[in-house]
Amino acid sequence: MKITCNKNDLLNSVNIVLKAVPSKTSMSILECIIIDATDDNIRLITNDMELGIETIVKGSITEKGSVAINAKIFSDIVRRLPDNEVTIELKDNYVTKITCEKSKFNISGSSSEEFPYLPEIEKEKPITISQFSLKEIIRQTVFSISDNENNKIMTGELFEISKNDLRVLALDGHRIAIRKIKLKEENDDNKIIVPGKTLNEISKILSGEIDDFVKIFTTDKHILFEFDDTIVLSRLIEGDFYKIDQMLSTDYETKIKINKREFQNSIDRASLLIRDSDRKPIILDINNNVLELKINTEIGALNEKIDIELEGKDIKIGFNPKFLLDALRVIDDEIIDLYFINAKAPCFIRDKEQLYIYLILPVNINAGY
Amino acid sequence: MKITCNKNDLLNSVNIVLKAVPSKTSMSILECIIIDATDDNIRLITNDMELGIETIVKGSITEKGSVAINAKIFSDIVRRLPDNEVTIELKDNYVTKITCEKSKFNISGSSSEEFPYLPEIEKEKPITISQFSLKEIIRQTVFSISDNENNKIMTGELFEISKNDLRVLALDGHRIAIRKIKLKEENDDNKIIVPGKTLNEISKILSGEIDDFVKIFTTDKHILFEFDDTIVLSRLIEGDFYKIDQMLSTDYETKIKINKREFQNSIDRASLLIRDSDRKPIILDINNNVLELKINTEIGALNEKIDIELEGKDIKIGFNPKFLLDALRVIDDEIIDLYFINAKAPCFIRDKEQLYIYLILPVNINAGY
User: Fold this and answer.
1) Do A103 and B306 touch (CB under 8 A)?
2) What residues of A are in contact with residue B273 (Cβ under 8 Å)?
3) Cα separation, B264 vs B248, whole angstroms
């Protein structure tokens, strides 16, 4: 194998495929990046057996072939090469010679034969979505998944496609995050559970541009994202997602309109007084047109008042401030609506069109607060 | 006590005094910031018993008094307050009420009586130096101190004052870093050893402006830096510093002129091939007007050539690349001079006026490389 490419093109591609290199593995071949120039394109490939990435590097192939090189060493070297043409050449015994200007590296590689190349999947009826929308919808929901591997379903997000609606749903037992967007074309109805890890990694690779698109293909077991010169292939989580639609009632006893920024800063200050060990809730005391936010812990006490617009009954309700903060951080609206039923029922933050719904369970507060 | 000040002024002062809050201590009072308004000024004070900082916050005192508040909690709160006037008021039992706009914190504080206030030292004959020069001279030498507490002297830097010369010296047994600057005024001869930790912390506080000055006072046991509205007081390290002047011979057998950036990048790449466990040296093979940089480790091999100007004999010599890199990073010259005697004697990087001298011991290399 002998290939030549530009250092920055190579570095961009290496940074993309690094996302599927496992940090811990007992199979050392998975710690490698495959440089594959057996075909007409130079491809870099990585695979941690859940998530696999393949990307094409612009460049020229003088001699076909392939090699596996330790991803960390290879990426460190490429990052520090001068900004110029890089030549990568396979020598005897998988020694890989990397040349750039007056710099000559010889690194031990290994055969790519043992490497689990990404399986071919059938590409039919893609869903097309802008990179911007996919990246946003992930950011706005993925914090609500659970990191408890004992409940596999909760570590993923439900992608629910119905005609030209895409609804994304994440939950962890204390809260639910839902975002809905319109797709340009009608699609077959489909429900799949995508691992949270896949979504986190892919959102780091996506450009986030409105005019760049991603094609999404699915099979029973896999989801494939195709964009730019890259494909990301991930296993799906098997099983049925939770039925949550009956929880999404729109009845309420109390509705408030509040300035999001003021509310968020106030909760942010309140959370300073909480030690991980005591987990005290914050109290929202809604009375007339004022929300009084209170907390009282070993460290100290905080009391703040925020003007609101109230519709319905007064209410006093407690929350884990983290769950409120997580939701508030990803809402772009300046003024938001919160809906309450009573101090033991979930609170909803949602917009009129229900493009976003954040459901948060309250914490039981006793008279002591 | 009742004081009022601007949030940003308060935050700046808190950030300054935080540098002398110990991360680990058995005396919980040392984890506090003292707010002292017993006098005409609002002063914040911290002290880890080696290093103490006192700074004045602009503001008004309505009621005199003082209190000790946990530094972490206080700084977290101040950081998150709205950008407005902050009122701090001492209530019963050292409860401290912090009010800003509609936000009211009540935090438990404690008496400042147990706190070790900074000792008064005699302020005579200050040395005056620009904040820029002090910050630079620290940055350019402090990496060469040792972090081995068993040899206390090596954890500090020698400040040597002779008339209007200030020479700063750091060494760790493998290398020596020396910088010299001219002071504006003549001073009494003096030699003191300043703890490296003090220098690291003070260089984070210094503005780095050429037109801002620091006054330095010393006694037998202390050094005091006075600048802006701040004083930093540190214990000195007691004992005699190493005599190193006889090592600073200017004889040489080989002198090269090399482009600093090229040399540094090349060593940087070479160090990628070194695992902490093997500690292989890099080889500089100087031959005619070429420096060939070589390294050969378990990970791989690197070979680079750099054009140089050679005066004297060819030489082949090995180094720990870290020691070369540390020195090269803080030299601003584009072209630098290296001086060698033989493969077992130290190498010198120095400018003509000897404003900087970096001495680095070589690593013994055998024929195997």
Assistant:
1) no
2) 105
3) 24
Residue B290 contacts A, CB cutoff 8 Å: no
With CA atoms as reference, report the closest residue to B42 among B28, B63, B21: B63
Q: Which residue of B has its CA nearest to A76?
A: B272
pLDDT tens by residue, chain A, 369 residues: 999 999 999 999 999 999 999 998 999 999 999 999 999 999 999 999 999 999 999 999 999 999 999 999 999 999 999 999 999 999 999 999 999 999 999 999 999 999 999 999 999 899 999 999 999 999 999 999 999 888 999 999 999 999 999 999 999 999 999 999 999 999 999 999 999 999 999 999 999 899 999 999 999 999 999 999 999 999 999 999 999 988 898 999 999 999 999 999 999 999 999 987 778 899 999 999 999 999 999 899 999 999 999 999 999 999 999 999 999 999 999 999 999 999 999 999 999 999 999 999 999 886 444
Within a 13 Å sphere around the CA of B116, how many CA atoms are in the beta-carbon half?
Answer: 16
CA distance A53 to A69: 15
Cβ–Cβ gap A265/B82 under 8 Å: yes
> How many angstroms away from the CA of B37 is the closest CA of chain A?
22
Q: How far is CA B64 from the centre of its chain?
A: 36
A87–chain B nearest CA distance, Å? 14
Q: Is the pLDDT of residue B369 over 50?
A: no
Contact B137, B183 (CB under 8 A): no
Does A104 lie at the interface with B, CB-CB under 8 angstroms? yes
Q: What is the pLDDT of residues B273-323, one digit of tens each?
A: 998 777 889 999 999 999 999 999 989 999 999 999 999 999 999 999 999
Contact A299 B108 (CB under 8 A): yes
Q: Which residues of B touch A306 (CB under 8 A)?
A: 102
Q: Identify the pLDDT of residue B368.
A: 47
DSSP type of residue A24 = S
Binary contact (A77, B272; C-beta < 8 A): yes
Kindly state whether B80 is in contact with chain A, defined as any CB-CB distance less than 8 angstroms.
yes
Whether A106 sits inside 8 A of B300 (CB atoms) is: yes
Q: Distance, in angstroms, between B70 CA and closest chain A CA?
A: 10
Report, in angstroms and rounded to the nearest whole number, the Rg of chain B calculated over CA atoms: 25
Domains and CATH numbers, chain B: 2-108 (3.10.150.10), 127-245 (3.10.150.10), 248-360 (3.10.150.10)
CB contact under 8 A, A80 and B269: yes
Q: Which residues of A touch B302 (CB under 8 A)?
A: 103-106
Torsion angle defined by CA atoms of residues A310, A313, A314 and A316, in that order, rounded to the nearest 10 degrees: -110
pLDDT digits (tens, 9 = 90+) for B73-87: 999 999 999 999 999
How buried is residue A235: exposed, middle or buried, by Cβ count under 10 Å (0-12/13-18/19+)? Answer: middle
**Residue A302: which of B76, B104, B305 has the nearest Cβ?**
B104
**pTM over cut 0.95:** no
- CA torsion B339→B345→B347→B348, rounded to 10°? -70
Q: What is the mean pLDDT of residues B323-349?
A: 97
Q: How far is CA A344 from the centre of its chain?
A: 31
Mention every residue, 6+ apart, whose C-beta is less than 8 A from residue B286. B254, B256, B292, B308, B310, B314, B315, B316, B317, B340
Q: What is the DSSP letter of B44?
A: E
List chain B residues with CB under 8 Å of A301.
105-106
Cβ of A82 under 8 Å from any chain B Cβ? yes
From A105, which residue of chain B is nearest by alpha-carbon distance?
B302
**Cα separation, A21 vs A19, whole angstroms:** 6
Q: Is A107 on the interface with B (CB under 8 A)?
A: yes
**Which amino acid is residue A222, in one-letter code?**
H
B-chain residues within 8 Å CB-CB of A107?
299-300
